[in-house]
Band 7 domain-containing protein (Brassicogethes aeneus), 290 residues
Amino acid sequence: MEDLLKEWGLEKFIPVFKEKPLTMGVIEFVAACGSVLLLIATMPFSLFFCFKVVQEYERAVIFRLGRLRSGGARGPGIFFVLPCVDSYCKVDLRTVSFDVPPQEALTKDSVTVTVDAVVYYRIQDPLNAIVQVTNYSNSTRLLAMTTLRNILGTRNLSEILSDREAISHAMQTSLDIATDPWGVKVERVEIKDVSLPTQLQRAMAAEAEASREARAKVIAAEGEMKASRALKEASDVISESPSALQLRYLQTLSTISAEKNSTIIFPLPIDILSYFMGGRTEHRQNNVMI
């Protein structure tokens, strides 16, 4: 056979014949011949049952008397099957998503959490999806549930709450390795929700509230400290220049005048008050000297 293929210039088909020799049993040959005779006898009505069509996103895996036919999956388009001899299974190659039911697991730091997820997968090898596993969809679902529980058991509660992307990536990698012999490609895994016990939620809420209150007190204390420093610097500037105090008075009057129904008290200039206060002081000193 190899010499004949080389003579015809078909060397690339030699490995195919080495792997699957063209051998046919007597019963299979007789059944195939009977099917062909039945097809010829019932034409043209039998053509409606012999020609099948698969869509662009589908593939057909054909079995002849229980044996997988050579050539791989058929499609897309039209293909031919022998009546009463051939059977076929359609496989959808589109991406399929399913929800992983909420799984209750014990974390590494002994906290019970309930986590659910969503998994996206597609069929990469139609032959393995039909031959290697009974129900690839159900098997992938069960495997996703157990994988999620196993991964949660290796993480702390803080990691589960803060780093969901790492958990999703680890789950996707584990599922992809396990489903590869089935011809299933896991494309993406997303963690949907993480549920905590009620008591733990209350404890975490109290801890977060106490942390926020402590942070607020620290910020308020820092603000008071900065305000006191600013007031001290302002008082030093005003004490160095008496005219600065007068400008402060005028600014205060301008602010008060912007309000309605308010009583305005005009303070006397400090220079006049200092003059009178200085005169009284001299008069008192003179009385004391007398």
